[in-house]
Each structure stands twice: as structure tokens, then as C-alpha cells.
């Protein structure tokens, strides 16, 4: 205790001045002003259950706080000053406030998460965390890097990996149950958007993938989501831009990723780092938008690393973590009081979140060691001499014995002693609808992605013109047949090699699928079938345009049936290579290694294609590979081992078709393995027994 007292005294002396939380409250008009006129509340949450019994309303007398867990009356202010949040100005006259409909309360008790190490479950990322989140409020999970913020968020949402172990209890509306599909939304820290779609198109296709019912019924939901996230000015703009126009900035992109989850009108919304890569202005706009969303009844739970003073004033409750330990849970201003009581008051000119992280981030110990006994031109560094390990122990011990911890336990007891209505799933779109939506969306993307699709078509035409002019005017001698075989080999081989140009586009599609599948908006089979159906028109366009030019330049037989077979054969080759690209891209998830692997595979395919050495002479089954044959003459049978049987060409075409199907089946297996590896599991039924055994 003497060490703790010494460190506290040193920190007090290093601060220029400190004040109580009440003195740090800025004026009510400091944060933002609503625009005058009518305000439309975009999210009505009409599908969320109402509490039948209003007796569950809880009033905590110790802290002077009044929390309504059931019927919460509409209030124009963000929260009361004496409840710990900073106030906002009243609504202007004539403003229309939507009916308050309760979302869902989320409570976690003694929540512990253990990550499997090399030998056993030894890494306890989260340790006996307690807390709650109520409808119409914003609960923020804050802490330094690797403090357990995202782990707690994923544990509450039921999105932990299958290899993780979870102990403790999670309650939704007072009952131990998992959040059903459609009742919650989860926004990852980094999401993949489709740059070739406008904001309205992107959200509309997302609504079609998520919601059941008719297409026309989902336009209103999309417009509400656009309005909820203040995206009206960008609704008809391309997300990624085009030509010389820049795409949307990171702030707008972040709000689009949140709006995608709002089309389901969730009762609970989880967001991992909503201010990730945002500047101060974009961060404030984001938090004001989320505050407006919370005022409609949605329960917001999100993680954050640090924020400005203005953003901090918009939070309702804060859960402060460090190395998996809970250092505080309660109202935002009460957290300032907690630090002051522990001996670490926040200086007036310092942001509260900066002060919190300065006290509990162990990385600052390195700076202390580096700056010790070292001075610069402006003086010494005695103001950073606080030991974070001591501060963490002090804050944790102070919180456990404080009235704030007792208040949390009381609230958890009150919120879990009586079960409220269970949340119900809102239904999903059928697989047939999802396949149709993904197919049409991919076709629209292909029509706009000129770099990855139309440029490929131009490259194929240039390659065909080059090969056609080189091998034109061959005549009809016996030697010209051999030359035409060489021309065909070059055309098909290099045409297949050009399919590597589609690797970036395929990689983007896989990333979009992974993002949508994590929220159960899509599936592996649905994705592959939609991708296959959408690629067929584009590949057939390349096949018929290139084959027509090559066929007549080289002087093949002037028969329609032979021409159609040549076009179909080249189309199947492109379809096979498209599947091969998907396989390699799914394995590597990296553009460089995917291209390198595909080039190596195509070189091997060229060597074993039967042109440089006939198939019967290839050593063993390892180098045997289906040959892209053409109908030829009896003279070629001994040179290239091409059968004169007319059925052999159809057999080879069947082999190509089976290869195309086989590659996509392999992609399906790879995607299923990836999904199974990341299946979120919450073992609610084992929580009580496991936690009691650990004790």
C-alpha cells in the first residue's frame, strides 16, 4: 500500500491541476445542434417485443441513478446530468419523436474467455467480467490493445471461435438464450464494401439477401437505414468512385457498413471499433449518428480505443478493461470520479480517454524507461513517471470495493430475476432468392468493373489479333495442318493464362462473401452458384468474340458445327480456369501468391497438354492431363495422338466440364472448412458447471 500511495502522490504532483467530474462538464450546447424542423426517426423497431410487466423497472438509490429497463418514456435529452452522461440541447419546436419501443437488455455475469495455446487453455483473455446494456443506451467497451475488448464483444454476440472456451452467463431480456437471426447486428472492424455499387444499390442488395418477402417491400427499409446513418447526400454515389472521381471517405464507408446491419432493424447492435481510421470530425459525426439511433430504442454495444472529449460525453456507460480485468463499469462521469478516488484525477486540459489509457496501458512503461534521466530542450519527463502496473492494481482494487461495483451487481440481479419476452427470428431470404440476387449483383458489378472485366476482353481481342495475323495465310497443304495445331495451342494456352487477370476481382468477391457469410447473409453454395451463373455470360462473350476472329484468321474449316464446337471448347477451358482461380484464391487469400501459383500451374499444364510431347509418351499418370483437342486429319494421329473417332472430342469436352465442376466443388469444401473453423459457439448450458469447477 505504501508503494501505491507513493505512486499516487507522484502522479498528483505531476498533474498541473485536477478537478472533480462535475467541474469538467461543458455547457449543454457544446456537442452538437440538431437542424430545425421535422425530425424523422428512421428505425421504428416495430418487430421488437414490448415488456408486458412494467415492474421490472429498476431504480438504483445508491448512485442516484434511475434506469428504466422496460417502458422508457421519450426524452429529448441524451441523458440526465446526474446519471453520469453529458446533456444535449432540447428538441426544437415541431420536432416529431418516434414512439419509444424497447429493444433488448443484455447482461453478462462472471464472463471468462480462455484462448487455447499450444498445449492447453492457458490464455485467459477475459476474466470474470460483469456488466449490462439497456435499450436506448450506448455501452462502450474501452481499453488498450489486447485488453479483451473485441473478445468481450464477440462473446456477447455469440461469435467466438469454436476453439475458444467461455465460462459465465449471458442473459438476453433476463433469460439465458442466444440472440436469434435478425434480432442483432454485428459490424466488424474492417468490412469489405463493393466499390462499383452506389450506396443505395449496396444496401438494397443487402436487404434482399437478408430479409424475406417481396422486393418492393424492402425499399422503405433501405431508405430508413440511409436516413438513420445520415447517408442521404451519398445515396446515389458510387462507393469506390469511377474514372477521375474519388470514392467515399472512410467515415461514410464506416457508416455504410453499419447501415447494412440496420436493414434488419435489430434490437441489439454490436460494433467493433466504430471510430476505426476516422478523423475527429468523422468520429464525432459517427457518434452523434449512433446516439440518434440509440434514442429510437436500439441497444448499442461497441468497442473503442480512445476518443475526444466531445465523443466521450455521448457515452452512457463505459466498461474499462486492461489485460482482461474489469477496472470499472458504470456511468461515464462516474468513471472520472473512480479515477479520482483511486488517486489518479484527470487533469483539466486532458481528454478523459487519453487519461484512462495513460494510466492502464502497460506500453507506457517502455516510454518511462526510455525517458528516465533524460531531458530535452523543454525540460524533463517527470510527468510520465507513473507506474501503470501499480495504477492497474489500484484501480481494480478500488473498483471491487466501491459502490459502483455493488450497483452493477444489484442491476444484474434485478435484470435477471425475471424473464422478459424472448426475441424471435425475423426469417431469412430463401436460397433461390439469394442466388438470383447474387447473380444479378455480380452481373452489375461486371458491367462496371472495367479494369477487371472489360479490360480482360480487350486483352483477349488483342491476343487473338496478334495470333491470327501471325498464323494467317497458311494455305491448305499438309504442313499447314501442323501449323494450325500450333496456332490453336498458342491461342488456347495463352488465352487460359490471361484468366489470371481476374485474380483481383475474384479475391474481392471472396472477401465480400466472407463478410456476408459471417453475418449469415449468404452461404458457400449460394455464393458459388451465383458466381458461376453470373460469369457464364461474360466468359461466353470472351469465347465467341475471340474464337470468331481466330477461327477465320487461321483458316479453319468453314462449317458452322465445327465453329460452334471450337467456341464451346474454348468456353469450357475458360470456365475451368475460372474455377482454378477460385480454388487458388480461396487457399492463399493473397493476390501475389495466387498469381505466382497460377502461373506455375499453367506452365505445367502447357508442358503436359500433349503439344510438346504426345499424351501416350508422357511418364505415368502424374503428367496425364486432359488435352484441349480439335478435330483433325488422319495424318495427325501419329504426330499429336489425336483420335479420328468423332466421339472423342465430346469425351474431352465432358472432361473439361467435369473439371470445371470439380474445381468449384473443391472451392465449396474450402469455404465450408473455413466457415466451420470460425463457427461461433456459446455454451450457455455449461457455463454454471464450468465456472463452479474452476472455483
From TrEMBL:
Keywords: ATP-binding, Membrane, Nucleotide-binding, Transmembrane, Transmembrane helix, Transport
Localization per Swiss-Prot or TrEMBL: Membrane
Biased composition range(s): Low complexity: 12-26, 75-86
Source organism superkingdom: Eukaryota
Region (Disordered) location: 1-26, 63-89
Membrane topology reported for the UniProt record: Multi-pass membrane protein
GO MF assignments: ABC-type transporter activity; ATP binding; ATP hydrolysis activity
Biased composition (Polar residues): 1-11
Recorded GO CC terms: membrane
Residue stretches spanning the membrane: 453-475, 481-503, 524-554, 560-584, 591-614, 653-673
PROSITE patterns: ABC_TRANSPORTER_2
Transport recorded as keyword: yes
Short name of any one Pfam family annotated for the protein: ABC2_membrane
InterPro entries: AAA+_ATPase, ABC2_TM, ABC_transporter-like_ATP-bd, P-loop_NTPase, Plant_ABCG
The keyword ATP-binding is annotated on this UniProt entry: yes
Domain spans labelled ABC transporter: 106-348
Endpoints of the signal sequence: none
Family: Belongs to the ABC transporter superfamily. ABCG family. Eye pigment precursor importer (TC 3.A.1.204) subfamily.
Entry protein name: ABC transporter domain-containing protein
Amino acid at each position: 500500500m505504501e508503494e501505491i500511495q507513493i505512486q499516487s502522490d507522484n502522479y498528483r504532483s505531476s498533474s498541473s491541476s485536477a478537478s472533480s467530474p462535475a467541474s469538467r462538464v461543458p455547457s449543454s450546447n457544446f456537442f452538437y445542434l440538431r437542424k430545425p424542423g421535422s425530425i424523422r426517426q428512421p428505425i421504428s423497431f416495430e418487430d421488437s417485443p414490448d415488456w408486458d410487466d412494467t415492474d421490472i423497472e429498476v431504480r438504483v438509490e445508491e448512485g442516484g441513478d434511475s434506469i428504466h429497463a422496460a417502458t422508457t418514456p421519450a426524452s429529448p435529452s441524451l441523458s440526465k446530468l446526474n446519471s453520469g452522461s453529458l446533456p444535449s440541447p432540447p428538441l426544437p419546436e415541431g420536432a416529431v419523436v418516434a414512439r419509444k419501443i424497447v429493444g433488448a437488455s443484455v447482461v453478462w455475469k462472471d464472463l471468462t474467455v480462455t484462448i487455447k495455446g499450444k498445449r492447453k487453455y492457458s490464455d485467459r483473455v477475459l476474466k470474470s467480467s460483469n456488466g449490462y446494456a439497456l435499450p436506448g443506451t450506448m455501452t462502450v467497451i474501452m481499453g488498450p490493445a489486447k485488453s479483451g475488448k473485441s473478445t468481450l464483444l464477440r462473446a456477447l454476440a455469440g461469435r467466438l471461435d469454436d476453439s475458444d472456451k467461455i465460462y459465465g452467463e449471458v442473459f438476453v431480456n433476463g433469460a439465458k438464450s442466444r440472440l436469434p437471426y435478425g434480432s442483432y447486428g454485428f459490424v466488424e472492424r474492417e468490412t469489405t464494401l463493393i466499390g462499383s455499387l452506389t450506396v443505395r444499390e449496396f444496401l438494397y442488395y443487402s436487404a434482399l439477401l437478408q430479409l424475406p418477402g417481396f422486393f418492393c417491400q424492402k425499399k422503405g427499409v433501405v431508405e430508413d437505414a440511409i436516413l438513420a446513418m445520415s447517408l442521404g447526400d451519398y445515396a446515389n454515389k458510387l462507393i469506390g468512385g469511377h474514372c477521375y472521381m474519388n470514392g467515399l471517405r472512410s467515415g461514410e464507408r464506416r457508416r455504410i457498413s453499419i447501415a447494412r446491419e440496420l436493414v434488419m432493424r435489430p434490437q441489439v447492435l454490436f460494433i467493433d471499433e466504430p471510430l476505426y481510421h476516422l478523423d475527429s470530425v468523422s468520429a464525432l459525426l459517427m457518434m452523434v449518428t449512433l446516439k440518434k439511433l440509440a434514442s429510437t430504442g436500439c441497444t448499442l454495444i461497441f468497442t473503442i480505443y480512445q476518443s475526444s472529449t466531445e465523443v466521450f460525453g455521448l457515452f452512457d456507460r463505459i466498461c474499462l478493461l486492461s489485460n482482461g480485468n474489469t477496472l470499472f463499469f458504470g456511468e461515464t462521469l462516474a468513471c472520472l470520479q473512480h479515477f479520482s478516488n483511486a488517486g489518479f484525477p484527470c487533469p483539466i486540459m486532458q481528454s478523459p480517454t487519453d487519461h484512462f489509457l495513460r494510466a492502464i496501458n502497460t506500453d507506457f512503461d517502455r516510454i518511462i524507461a526510455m525517458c528516465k534521466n533524460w531531458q530535452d530542450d523543454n525540460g524533463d519527463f517527470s510527468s510520465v513517471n507513473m507506474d501503470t502496473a501499480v495504477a492497474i492494481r489500484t484501480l481494480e482494487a478500488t473498483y471491487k470495493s466501491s459502490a459502483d461495483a455493488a450497483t452493477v451487481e444489484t442491476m444484474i440481479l434485478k435484470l435477471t430475476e425475471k424473464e422478459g419476452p424472448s426475441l424471435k427470428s425475423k426469417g431469412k431470404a430463401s436460397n433461390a432468392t439469394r442466388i438470383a440476387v447474387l447473380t444479378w449483383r455480380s452481373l452489375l458489378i461486371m458491367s462496371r468493373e472495367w479494369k477487371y472485366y472489360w479490360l480482360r476482353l480487350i486483352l483477349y481481342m488483342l491476343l487473338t489479333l496478334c495470333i491470327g495475323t501471325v498464323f494467317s495465310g497458311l494455305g491448305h497443304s499438309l504442313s499447314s495442318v501442323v501449323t494450325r495445331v500450333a496456332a490453336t495451342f498458342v491461342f488456347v494456352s495463352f488465352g487460359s493464362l490471361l484468366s489470371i487477370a481476374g485474380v483481383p476481382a475474384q479475391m474481392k468477391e471472396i472477401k465480400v462473401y466472407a463478410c456476408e457469410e459471417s453475418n449469415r447473409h449468404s452461404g458457400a453454395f449460394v455464393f458459388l452458384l451465383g458466381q458461376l451463373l453470373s460469369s457464364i455470360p461474360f466468359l461466353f462473350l470472351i469465347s465467341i468474340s475471340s474464337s470468331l476472329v481466330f477461327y477465320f484468321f487461321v483458316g479453319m474449316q468453314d462449317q458452322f458445327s465445327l465453329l460452334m464446337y471450337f467456341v464451346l471448347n474454348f468456353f469450357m477451358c475458360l470456365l475451368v480456369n475460372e474455377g482454378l482461380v477460385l480454388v487458388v484464391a480461396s487457399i492463399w487469400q493473397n493476390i501475389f501468391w495466387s498469381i505466382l501459383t497460377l502461373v506455375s500451374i499453367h506452365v505445367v499444364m502447357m508442358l503436359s497438354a500433349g503439344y510438346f510431347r504426345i499424351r501416350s509418351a508422357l511418364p505415368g499418370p502424374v503428367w496425364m492431363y486432359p488435352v484441349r483437342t480439335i478435330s483433325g486429319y488422319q495424318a495427325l494421329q501419329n504426330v499429336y495422338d489425336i483420335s479420328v473417332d468423332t466421339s472423342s472430342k465430346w469425351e474431352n469436352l465432358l472432361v473439361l466440364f467435369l473439371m470445371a465442376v470439380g474445381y468449384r466443388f473443391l472451392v465449396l469444401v474450402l469455404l465450408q472448412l473455413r466457415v466451420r473453423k470460425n463457427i461461433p459457439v456459446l455454451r450457455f448450458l455449461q457455463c454454471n458447471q464450468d465456472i463452479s469447477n474452476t472455483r
